[in-house]
Design a protein that fits this description.
Layout: H1 8-12, H2 21-32, H3 48-65, H4 70-83, H5 86-113, H6 122-131, H7 136-159, H8 164-191, H9 197-221, H10 223-226, H11 232-254
Helix pairs in contact: 2-5, 3-5, 4-5, 5-8, 7-8, 7-9, 7-11, 8-11, 9-11
Bound molecules: fe (ii) ion (2 copies).
The site of one fe (ii) ion (FE2) has 6 residues, from helix 5 and helix 8.
Amino acid sequence: MDAFKPFECEESGQVGHVRPSWWWTVHFRRNRHREWHIPWDEAASLDAVERRRIARSIAEFQRGESSEARCYLALSEGFSGRTGDPEFHHTSQLFVHEENGHSELLGRFMRLAGISQIGGSWGDRVFRALRGLGDIGWASRVLMIAELIAQDYYPALREATDHPVLRRICDKIIFDEAAHIRFQVERIVRVEASLGSIAVFGRRAAQTVLMAGAAAIVLVGHRHVLRRHPGARAFIASALARNRRALDLIDALRRGGDALPEAQTRRPSLV
Ligand SMILES: [Fe+2]
Ligand SMILES: [Fe+2]
């Protein structure tokens, strides 16, 4: 399984290229079977201080990861139909399924630790509404904000707890979300290929504003998790820097990226 490395471009510092839908189908299917050895049987308890620090925060992220993403999937299905690429939509379904898997893992941990689930927060409702304000490219940009924030939130959550189950769940989600950033970047490049440079510049500006607002809201709402590690300033700085790198990667891929390696013009076997 490890022979199929998803992010060799990032490791080598290269821009890479936009990969075909089947590449992501293979990635999500293989990732589903990756074994993370979560120690469910280790009966560590959550002390009162730790519970106060993380319970509400986990419940909100668990709820956010549970979205059925109906609007996003409808947009994806439309794009698939218009471009004659059914696998594009299939990959969207696999992506949403992977997000829902994060919700299930967090939910199972919450039951183990006696933490109650919550209904939707206003931030969650705003985030879902924003996704529906444009095409699949805009929806992917809004989703990517969550992927980028996850790259700072879950390491902070991991630092905020000693519970071995939750720490291992964080490891898995951090790994998955890193791939989701690249997934969204490539999709944005593909579905916004027909947009002119002024329209793309407008979206870049809108995404920057959205990221700044989202990072501030997450910082306030999850300050008990974030304030010790990485700390407020570092969290905001890191979120904005991640967003800038993702936007620069979109620009670089729009300009053509790197040449497609011969090995990635052929679909690998799933067995
Ligand atoms: Fe997720
Ligand atoms: Fe994600």
